[in-house]
Amino acid sequence: MRLEIEPLTAARFAPFGTVIEQDGSAPLQRFDLVHAHGGRAETPGFALFTVAAAVSLPLEIRQLEIHPHSAQTFLPLVGGTSLVFVCEGGPDGAPRPETGRVFRATGRQGVCYHRGVWHHRLSPLELPSQYAVIMTHAPEGEDTVLFDLPEAVLIAGDAAAG
Amino acid sequence: MRLEIEPLTAARFAPFGTVIEQDGSAPLQRFDLVHAHGGRAETPGFALFTVAAAVSLPLEIRQLEIHPHSAQTFLPLVGGTSLVFVCEGGPDGAPRPETGRVFRATGRQGVCYHRGVWHHRLSPLELPSQYAVIMTHAPEGEDTVLFDLPEAVLIAGDAAAG
Lengths: 162, 162
What we know:
By secondary structure, chain A is mainly β. Chain A has one helix at about 10-15; strands at about 1-5, 5, 15-20, 30, 45-50, 60-65, 70-80, 80-90, 95-105, 110-115, 120, 125, 130-135, 145-155.
């Protein structure tokens, strides 16, 4: 399966989450972070995350992850463009990579994945790359499920301009 | 009253809050955001905030603010150094500017003010300047109290190197 890269816009990304970006309309823009965590009220936390290795195109996506109980926000602090891969899940809970979409986020665009959205791990195209990651403060790994795809999804390099 | 600028370090800032900064010891560093909001469990939110005007030294501080029910985190997304002024409060709840301290934060250092810590508004020394502001999602202004100081605090420019 081969997938073309789309530009990241709020409308395109709406089924999967929120684009965190100032549109220039106001000096202060508020965003909701829906950090429902299985109905339990918990203190959210965040982490600063430096990604050591960039990805390059064409990219083979072989593993996806999901947080069944938490929304998750990535906000770029340092760095340039990243790839954001998302797909729907099936009735059995497994990802359906054939529904996948991949977006090119600029270094000024963050994303908040809705709770329970399958996605690929942080995929910066350039280094250095540092993000703030905001989500409910669960013990390490408690709310992360990994899934190895039986067949890789190929992100094409030619349509990089979106 | 005239105050010299200190470098921002976790130890110096500990009475007032947390310094949000990667120290290079690990690619992922977690921080607690204590968003107690008067005991009520609320969804935290955040905002992207672009500051239109920088401050210059010497700086006269004439107004302080406090959030009685919320911690508040500022994370620089774009920009350079900022000044961070904090002081203790008295038994009457008013700020005691004579206890004030002022820190120079680099463009890679965020701060999380503890709940109920008097502080000066965002004070970037350079533009452009954009921050992510993370705090409990209260209606505009609900948890912000402003206080006009009877006498300005003067932040000296000469000791800028800390």
